Amino acid sequence: MSRLADLRFRAATTFQRRVGNPVLRRIPLQTVLETTGRVSGVPRRTPVGGRRVGDSFWLVSEFGERSQYVRNIKADPRVRVRIRGRWHTGTAHLLRDDDPIARLRSLPRFNSAAVRVLGTGLLTVRVDLDG
């Protein structure tokens, strides 16, 4: 990873950890992804942008496999997603062969712009929602 990409990653994750995540995950209509901590076993909630399409929820991880929630998904793919204030359980899939740039075009513009600007090593994630 280049020095600039590493600097962007550290700056973005520090901001998200200290300001963005604590504020955004409290907003009732903010979409939130809940994973299980791979070491602690404690639920971890991360505000995300994405879109529900049928029985699937799609998102693009801005830091790919470096994202903590992606690392948690690799350890345990069972997740919950809060969409419009309602929790849904499902199974997350990391789609390494999907084109994340093309996928971003189908997701909400605000989130897509932030992911494109800050992201390095984009990765598509699909959550197959239960019933």
Fold topology:
Blueprint (H helix, E strand, L loop, with lengths): L2 H22 L7 E5 L6 E5 L3 E3 L2 E6 L6 H8 L2 E6 L2 E10 L4 H5 L4 H10 L4 E7 L2
Antiparallel strand pairs: 1-2, 1-5, 3-4, 4-7, 5-6, 6-7
Structural commentary:
By secondary structure, the protein is of the alpha+beta class. The chain contains four helices and seven strands, in the order αββββαββααβ. The protein has a seven-stranded antiparallel beta sheet with strand order 2-1-5-6-7-4-3. β3 and β4 form a beta hairpin. The protein is globular. The protein starts with a helix and ends with a strand.
How many strand units?
A: 7
Number of helix segments? 4
Overall spatial form: globular
Low-confidence stretches: none
Structural class: alpha+beta
What is the quaternary state of this protein?
single chain
- Mean pLDDT, nearest integer? 84
How much of the polypeptide forms β-strand, as a percent range?
25-35%
User: What is the strand arrangement across the widest sheet?
Assistant: 2-1-5-6-7-4-3
**Helical coverage, percent range:** 25-40%
Helix-strand pattern, N to C? HEEEEHEEHHE
Main β-sheet: number of strands, strand sense, barrel status? 7 strands, antiparallel
Kindly provide the radius of gyration, computed on alpha-carbon positions and rounded to a whole number of angstroms. 14 Å
What's the N-to-C terminus distance? 40 Å
